[in-house]
Amino acid sequence: YPSILKTCIRLGDLELGEQIHCQIVKTSFQLNAYVCSVLIDMYSKLGKLDTAKDILVRFAGKDVVSWTTMIAGYTQYNFNDKALTTFRQMLDLGIRSDEVGLTNAISACAGLQSLKEGQQIHA
Question: For residue range 112-122, what is the model confidence (pLDDT) as tens digits?
Fold first, then answer.
């Protein structure tokens, strides 16, 4: 399923992506961290950020890739407040950020012109 979902992203085909997601649910396919992160990526890149966040909250657990994918989705659409809120939630859950998460969090700070918060994240 992940390769098909990635094709949906490249094609910009949300409808097909949603159909594949429904098929995943119908077949009780194991939603492991990788599948979750690809679903979050697809919904984020195709503009369905609420659906992506719902998948993150319900299924991703402590997978740093899923969390940073969600943060990247928010920064892509300039929802910098939501990106930073999600970054803080990730840290509050004890999930250590990777370089991608840090880069996106600092980018969100730049979008908000929040130098102080950017410095705190960078420290």
Answer: 888 777 777 76
